[in-house]
Automatic annotation (TrEMBL):
All copies of domain TH1, residue ranges: 13-193
PROSITE patterns: TH1
Protein name (database record): TH1 domain-containing protein
Lineage: Eukaryota, Metazoa, Chordata, Craniata, Vertebrata
MF annotations from Gene Ontology: cytoskeletal motor activity
Length: 197
């Protein structure tokens, strides 16, 4: 009877392990919402990220120089935020190095991660836009314990580029929502309404 119980227990462990692996893979596919061309074998690094995943949301990342819009995924783990593109890590920001987070008083969805300029591994501050800003900020506050680092700005905010250069994001309201690079080199963010309080 003892050997039979041991065999049954071992079988149960094997079935549970298989179930857990399948659940993780399904969760990964759903959470990251990757296109069909990315459903190849998972990157080991991305798979490890999925194990410590706390939150994930689609974003638009704006390049620091030309402000070209690029679709990405923002992933929050227990220790860092990751910007991912097609299962490839484009940038990692450790919470311990995150100096601040800026958002505007408008409903533009812009969020800026301020990163130390002396960090040679970084390319400057991270400018992003997401549809569920309140949700993302709440998750970031809880996971990273950065409640006091969130700044709500009005009018404009400076951001750091590589090599010590600075840029400016200007916020305004208008009849049509848009994000574009102005002739003066600033990133112009126009929103149709003020964020509800």
């Amino acid at each position: 009877h003892l050997k039979l119980i041991e065999r049954l227990f071992q079988s149960f462990k094997n079935i549970f392990s298989l179930f857990l692996s399948c659940s993780l893979l399904l969760s990964y596919s759903y959470t990251f919402s990757l296109p069909s061309r990315s459903l190849s074998p998972l990157s080991p690094t991305i798979f490890l990220l999925s194990l410590s995943l706390q939150y994930s949301i689609p974003i638009v990342k704006y390049d620091r120089n030309g402000f070209k819009a690029r679709p990405r995924q923002l992933i929050l783990t227990q220790t860092a935020a990751y910007v991912v593109d097609d299962a490839k890590i484009k940038q990692r920001v450790l919470y311990t190095t995150l100096k601040g987070v800026s958002v505007s008083t408008l409903s533009d969805g812009i969020i800026i991660f301020h990163i130390p300029s002396e960090d040679d591994k970084q390319k400057g501050d991270l400018i992003m836009q997401c549809d569920h800003l309140f949700e993302a900020l709440t998750k970031l506050s809880v996971v990273a314990n950065k409640q006091s680092a969130i700044n709500v700005v009005q009018g404009s905010v400076k951001f750091q580029m590589k090599a010590g250069k600075e840029g400016i994001v200007e916020f305004s309201s208008g009849q049509e929502s848009m994000v574009y690079k102005d002739k003066n080199g600033h990133l112009m963010v126009v929103s149709t309404r003020t964020r509800a309080r």
